[in-house]
Amino acid sequence: MTIKFSKKFYSLTAVKKSIKAYQSLAGFKITERKKTIEVLIENIDKDFKNVLVDEFSNYVLSEMKNAY
Amino acid sequence: MKKIKVKENKIVIIVNPIFYSLEAIYSAAYIFIDRAYLLLNESPKNQVAINIKGKEKLTKKQLEDLAGEFCNELLNCALRDKISKNNQKIREQIITRALFSAEETSNEKINKKIEKEKWQKDTLGIALPWKEKYGKSAQKQR
């Protein structure tokens, strides 16, 4: 599963911080594109499979709010 | 502008950043973080697409209500942001004045302390204890 975060609204630092917080629940891979930060999420813990991606995006947003 | 996607349990609200600052959008999104999953995306014509996905399965009516509530909150946050920007100078002045006056009182306290201590100083050297002046050690020194 890949999430694309627009660089206009999300910073790389916020994404990295969120990955650090979630790294025990799944495997993450960041790819930086020109306008987006792509995060590939795999090997998701089976207990959180349904919610992890959405919860992760919320977490990144909260990191952005804290940084703003 | 709103797009309701009942099947995906989500709504997409497209907002013009001219009317709503990015800070207001972040604030409104942050308020809804416990009720929904939010993702901000770029939309054509430099607009902001706010994807709001319900944490539980929602009906079309509930999704519409959620979108309405979000728009109201966005307006609220935008107004707050505008007021805070308008009052920024006044707030800074109030804080500066408060800090300055606090510093003045602390200076006054120090001055008072110094004044209090001045009269306690033994400039003539008559406040020596008897032992020091006439005791055995003093006699030895003589």
Question: Would you spell out the secondary-structure blueprint of this structure?
Answer:
The complex is a heterodimer of chains A (68) and B (142).
Chain A: E1 2-6, H1 12-22, E2 27-32, E3 36-42, H2 52-67
Antiparallel strand pairs in A: 1-3, 2-3
Chain B: E1 2-5, E2 10-15, H1 22-31, E3 36-43, E4 47-54, H2 60-86, H3 88-120, H4 130-134, H5 136-141
Antiparallel strand pairs in B: 1-2, 2-4, 3-4
Could you describe the 3D structure shown?
The complex is a heterodimer of chains A (68) and B (142). With 68 residues, chain A is α+β, with helices and mostly antiparallel strands. Chain A has one domain (2-67). Chain A has helices at residues 12-22, 52-67, and strands at residues 2-6, 27-32, 36-42. Chain A is globular. Chain B has 142 residues and is of the alpha+beta class. Helices cover 57% and strands 18% of the residues of chain B. Chain B contains five helices and four strands. In chain B, strands 1-2-4-3 form a four-stranded antiparallel sheet, with helices on one face. In chain B, helix 1 crosses helix 2 (60-86). Chain B starts with a strand and ends with a helix. Classes of the chains: A alpha+beta (68), B alpha+beta (142). Chain A binds chain B through residues 3-4, 6, 8-10, 35, 54-55, 57-58, 61-62, 64-65, 68, and chain B through 22-23, 26-27, 29-30, 33, 37-42, 48, 53, 55.
Short descriptors:
heterodimer; A: alpha+beta; three-stranded antiparallel β-sheet; 2 helices; 26% strand; B: alpha+beta; Alpha-Beta Plaits; four-stranded antiparallel β-sheet; 5 helices; 4 strands; 57% helix; rod-shaped
